[in-house]
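Hey,
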Amino acid sequence: MPTALANGVTIAYETSGDPAGAPVLLIMGLGMQLISWPQAFVDGLVQRGCHVIRYDNRDSGLSTKFDGAGVPNLPLSYLKNIVGWPLRPAYTLEDMADDAHGLLEHLQIPEAHVIGVSMGGMIAQVFAARHARRTRSLTSIMSSSGRRGLPGPTRAARNSLLRPAPSGATREQLIGHMVETFRVIGSPDFPMPEHELRANIGRTLDRSLCPAGVARQLVAIAANGDRSRLLKQIRKPTLVIHGANDPLVPVACGIDTASQIEGAALHIIEGMGHDMPPQLIGRLLALIDPHVQGKMARHSQAA
């Protein structure tokens, strides 16, 4: 696995497709790894002539871990965020966006189409505003502007995300624990086959496991707060995709994200939750392909 020294940290990455193709930078979500991108999605972009770059965010996968920063107290951080008290994250979403910028510099790629999901969508938003010259287009999937007043996760989704794994759990118990979480937040109309979900989780566990990193990333999200003012600075072609049935980041968050970015196209997918199930890969690619090719009409519609 190649690595790059980017923004002072080691970033593990992988490239696919023709280097002369349209560069597409994929940014994953909370605690996820570059292998968390569905292979069919990556292959579909490659087949459409894209040069795909995916990487592990700091504190996940094979990239630099910030264990020296300790494990944050999530309940206390949550309360501080609710009442508006300042948080002291180990790093910020701006730092994470600068990691992506450093990776493109390392690869000598002057600009890229930036696609992020969930927390990765937040990082992509920050990247597009902070590094406009490096951005050809922005695609924000199942993400949010962070604006106060937007609905939060359902109780079941929040509890599932924050529920710790059993102490001393075996590999199979960890897989079962994570399967339960993905079932709660996943797409109700497009459930991922059990064997495929378990295999995907097993691969990520075997590659890396860093619960403390997930906690540090959560605090970075909370500390970033409202990005509305930042989003209004974005002038690049923007596509916002969101599931109508997302229990973790409700669809109102996607609608709000699109409303904050001038000319953004919004596509709401009925039956989609907070995941990228195999049944929806073709539809996602069909939305993203014309956007990357510069043929996306700027309007909002359901998909």
